[in-house]
Each structure stands twice: as C-alpha cells, then as structure tokens.
Amino acid sequence: MDQKDTKSAEGPEGEPIPELLHSVYEERPFRTCTRCGESLSEFESGYRISKEFRKGEVVLEYAICHPCLERMLEESSVESKQNLARFHEVHFKGPLGFDQCAFCEKIKSAVRDDEYAIAGMCLGTRLMEQAMVCVECAEAMHAVLSEHTTRIWRRFREENFPGVPVDFEPFPGESLTHEKAL
Ligand SMILES: [Zn+2]
Ligand SMILES: [Zn+2]
Hints:
- Helix content is 25%, strand content 20%.
- By secondary structure, the protein is an alpha+beta fold.
- It has one domain.
C-alpha cells in the first residue's frame, strides 16, 4: 500500500571496505594517508587504497588522501598528464571490480605473472568504486609517462618504503604504474 519513498530504505552509499583492501602490514584497515599522515576518515573528498600483487603476494600497498593524490598529479609534467588523459580516453572501460582489468577486460586469472594492481576509492569506511589493472596495461600506461613524472612516483614509493614488510621484495619495480586508474 505505501509504496512511495522506497529510496529511504537504502543504506549508506557504497559497501564496507573489504578485507582485501586492508593493510597487510598493519593487519587492519588503513587509518592514515601514507603521504601526509592525516586520518583518512577526515577527508570528505575520500581517499584511494592501492595494492600491488605479484604471484599472489602484496608487494606494495598504500592509502592516499584525495588532496595528496591531486597534488601528486599536479606535480606530473604537462606531457604526462596529456598522455595519460589520452590513454584513458582510448582504453579506460570503467572500474569493473577486482577481477577484471579496467583497461583491457582481461580477467585476473589470465593476468601475466599473476601481477596486477587493485585500487579502491573510499569514503570514510565505505568503498565507492573498485578497479583492477593488469600488468600489461600498467606497463603501457607507464610507457606514456615522462621521466619527470616517473621520478615523482618513484620518490613516493621510496619515501614510503617502511610501509612494506621487509621480507617482501625490496622494490616492486616500475611495471605497475597504474596511477590515475580511477
Ligand atoms: Zn594525504
Ligand atoms: Zn589490462
């Protein structure tokens, strides 16, 4: 009888952040931005969690608040920004979840060397969007970046290296430069 307002029954947007996006190193959900150290729940514009896997193991993980992400993209060269934008225009299929590459639709089990990155755009304790990028697409994207931009991201990885457990590979290499994947 009362069928108006079905929308009001909906819960909050998104879904709870799955364990897959928790910090392996801290053994709990990410709490602070890897770059600025501020509490992630404070950011109204949200934050992004990224994890890179190789042969089933996490080789790099970080959470970065939206303002920090913007700042790092701003520091990228004009050329890189244009190239990335073009790459997205041509290849980006949208965030297709954790099992399908956002750029080539390859499914996770078919990814070369079991190497891929996953990313989740989060807001508070909710996951709003999720994506996977296979190693080949990450390499293709990396190839369009300028030396300058590559250096910025390399520095970010090096400076935040303590976030990666020591028994993991010392440095994940640069094959997985999937930034701006979302
Ligand atoms: Zn930050
Ligand atoms: Zn791909």
